[in-house]
Amino acid sequence: MASPTVTLPHLAARANDLPGLGWRGRDAEWIALVCLHSGVFVRSQFCHHYQCDRATALRFVRRLTDARTAKQHPLPDTRTNQQFCHIHGKSFYRTLGIPDVRHRRRVGDGVLWRRLLSLDAVLEHPALPWLPTEPDKVHYFTGLGIDPELLPRRVYAGRNGTTTRAFAWKLPIAGDAGRAVFVYVDAGLATTRQLRRWCAEHAPLWAALRASAIEVHVHAVARTVEADARNAAFLQAHQATPSAAQPLSADEANTLAQLDAALEARDHAALRRWGGFIDAGIRAASLRARAAPPDLTLAGHIDQLHTHVASRVADDVYAA
């Protein structure tokens, strides 16, 4: 039976491996969560998930750093003095059965944000049956009868030959007998180019899942409201129920041109006409998605879509 401190069911067994290292209950669960999914976290994520005050989170982090199993670093590309905590203690990863996972290593800003937002996606839906490792993901899909060749793969060349890795995006995936949930993370890009590539690489798998009566759910996480609206507009065009939207009329095309000009100039006075910066951005993203030609290779593969702005992490969700 799971401990009453367990709030993420997929960690119920794994968190039980850490008491031998002196970590129990909620603290062990959080360490297992971070080591398996990201390697990094910010204290506001801990506070939000466990509904505790900042002093409690600070004591937890200090215990980690005092034990020399974690370090705090300034969070880059923010407007505050917020810090992130990197759990690097080898004993944690070895005990959890993932000694070679790259979460122990320091990474560049882009990968750091991808990992923080990936963790935020898991925290957004803590009850889902998340699949933390590559073997977990491969086992789940092949167990459904999916051809392994349909899994998104990349081939890496090294001194000892080539290595093929499945799910090289290293983004969260959850799955059960009726649905598979795929997380996309927007770490701060200004276009949907990477999102389009991610969708294209997963499209064969999504088509196979839907053919097997498994629903495909997509969860997109972004750092800003503007990016969230842009990603949502793109993904909505590829849901299983085709949109009834018609091509832009002349008036709508003119509206989009005015919106784009005002948004680029950050002309808040002009943007009030459409309800302000946020509403104008959402309106522009919706029109822009309709103006773009549909990608027929993706249409119809997504059953449900959920997006959220990672306000637990980002200090300025309205930044462009």
Explain what you see.
The termini are far apart. Helices cover 41% and strands 15% of the residues. The protein is an alpha/beta fold and 320 residues long. Helix 2 (43-50) crosses helix 3, helix 8 (225-236) runs parallel beside helix 11 and helix 9 crosses helix 11 (277-291). The model has no long low-confidence stretch (mean pLDDT 87). It has 11 helices and 9 strands. The radius of gyration is 21 Å and the shape is globular. 38% of the residues are buried.
* Unreliably modeled segments: none
How far from one another are the termini? Answer: 47 Å
How many DSSP E strands?
9
In terms of DSSP E residues, the strand content is: 15-25%
Count, helices? 11
Largest sheet: 4 strands, mixed
Shape: globular
- Which percent bin holds the helix content? 40-55%
Radius of gyration: 21 Å
Mean pLDDT across residues: 87
Strand order of the largest sheet: 6-7-8-9
Structural class: alpha/beta
Topology, pairings included?
Layout: H1 25-37, E1 40-41, H2 43-50, H3 54-66, E2 70-74, E3 83-87, H4 90-95, H5 109-124, H6 134-143, E4 153-158, E5 161-166, E6 173-175, E7 179-186, H7 193-211, E8 215-222, H8 225-236, H9 250-265, H10 268-271, H11 277-291, E9 304-309
Parallel strand pairs: 7-8, 8-9
Antiparallel strand pairs: 1-3, 2-3, 4-5, 6-7
Helix pairs in contact: 2-3, 8-11, 9-11
